[in-house]
Design goal:
With 114 residues, the chain is of the alpha+beta class. The protein contains two helices and four strands. It is flat.
Length: 114
């Protein structure tokens, strides 16, 4: 699906058609730090980039590859995090959802004026 450029915010992109676009949810961790996990031997996970996923996923991917190739956990720049539940997650998700809706409405109002 091609996506149109956003001329209201970036007039120089008027008429530009994009082959791809990114969208998704932001994964947050309680301590706001990315986590490297090994839930079981041979399974490596990197998550919780806290809104910095584009850059952080590249770094985490490189380090996960190093770990998969045999690097000791002590050699990596990310500590191995334990798997644990996110305390009070539901109220935080609700609050974040309300805040995002509010900011989306403000963005839409600004775009209509622009």
């Amino acid at each position: 699906m091609a996506a149109e450029g956003c001329p209201a915010h970036f007039p120089s992109l008027k008429g530009v058609k994009w082959a791809y676009r990114w969208g998704g949810t932001v994964a947050l961790t309680p301590d706001r730090v990315p986590h490297l996990l090994e839930p079981e031997p041979g399974l490596i996970c990197g998550l919780g980039y806290n809104g910095r996923g584009v850059a952080m996923s590249l770094v985490m991917g490189r380090e996960m590859a190093r770990r998969a190739l045999g690097a000791a956990i002590e050699e990596l720049p990310f500590p191995l995090a334990p798997m644990k539940p996110y305390a009070f997650r539901e109220p935080q998700v609700l609050g974040a959802g309300l805040a995002m809706r509010y900011w989306r409405i403000l963005d839409q109002r600004e775009a209509r004026r622009g």
